[in-house]
Design a protein that fits this description.
The chain has about 300 residues and is mainly α. The protein is built from 11 helices and no strands. It has a single domain, classed as MetI-like (MetI-like fold, Orthogonal Bundle).
Length: about 300
């Protein structure tokens, strides 16, 4: 187990290097610069500003300097948020992003697995059709469309929830962004659970458990559900990535002071260190979460060996 974990972490190093390299040069290739204005700066002032941020060096030198700083855990200074480093902004906004993302993932798993299980137990009945209709609707509507719809209905028309703002982390301010992030993932997980549960319920070991006289609840919860969760666990890696990338848009829509909002502002204003720091941070987070998913998969399925 330990050797497997160390191997996965070692293999993540070249992956991160590729992510850093591609993101670094794509940011520089994009038209515009961090200090472009409608009214151009005087040449001598622009030269001083570029020198202050080491942007006057050759591009390859900037790249190697950035990688060297990254190895020390330094994402550099923000070019737009004055008096703040990228580290300060990322770790300052991580709390809000983590709360929204983790709650959305937890809600997606609980609701998706429950709905998929109920649909499988009521296969080809009205409940099954209702769950699958909801799932297809959730898959078809992306979260950046779902967010304004939820805001319009629950926030504007019904006035049940605040439509924007963080409110110091109040529970009411979290409900709409969490729902907007979770609904598409609930739909995917419900479909996966339903298909997997139908297959498991028709397997031989479930027939044997029922033949022994076990109660249906025990058969479903202890035996069928454990096997049916394996495809869901496999999907949790991509689901986490979808929630992470989706939170970038959701945080901007609901004005949440998280990492995603800083990323959007950084991208619009060509804040190279801010965008790079966010990309690297999210890449590390996704790699670690995928490792956790693999470990959970091995725990649920004894046939899987992590050597």
């Amino acid at each position: 187990m330990h050797r497997y974990i160390l191997g996965r972490l070692a293999s993540a190093v070249p992956t991160l290097l590729i992510v850093v390299t591609v993101a670094f040069f794509m940011m520089r290739i994009a038209p515009g610069g961090p200090f472009d204005r409608e009214r151009a700066l005087p040449p001598e002032i622009e030269a001083n500003v570029l020198k202050a941020y080491n942007l006057d060096k050759p591009l390859l030198q900037q790249y190697f300097d950035y990688v060297g700083n990254l190895l020390r855990g330094d994402f550099g200074p923000s070019l737009k948020f004055r008096d703040f480093s990228v580290n300060d902004l990322i770790f300052g906004g991580f709390g809000a992003s983590f709360q929204i993302g983790s709650l959305a993932l937890l809600l997606a798993v609980l609701c998706g697995v429950s709905m998929g299980t109920v649909a499988a137990l009521r296969q080809n009945r009205r409940t099954d059709y209702a769950v699958m209709t909801f799932a297809m609707t959730g898959i078809a509507i992306p979260n950046f469309v779902m967010a304004p719809l939820l805001t319009l209905v629950l926030g504007v028309y019904l006035s049940l929830l605040p439509v924007a703002g963080w409110g110091g982390g109040a529970a009411a301010n979290k409900i709409l962004p969490v729902l907007a992030l979770a609904l598409p993932q609930i739909a995917y997980i419900a479909r996966l659970t339903r298909g997997s549960m139908v297959e498991v319920l028709n397997s031989n070991f479930i027939r044997t458990a029922r033949a022994k006289g076990l109660r249906e609840r025990i058969v479903v919860v202890r035996h069928a559900l454990r096997g049916a969760l394996l495809p869901v666990l496999s999907y949790l890696g991509p689901a986490t990535a979808n929630i992470v990338t989706g939170s970038v848009v959701i945080e901007s829509i609901f004005d949440i002071p998280g990492i995603g909002r800083y990323f959007v502002h950084g991208a619009l204003n060509r804040d190279y260190p801010m965008v790079m720091g966010t990309v690297v941070f999210y890449a590390v987070l996704i790699i670690l979460l995928n490792l956790v998913v693999d470990l959970l998969y091995a725990w649920l399925d004894p046939k899987v060996r992590l050597d």
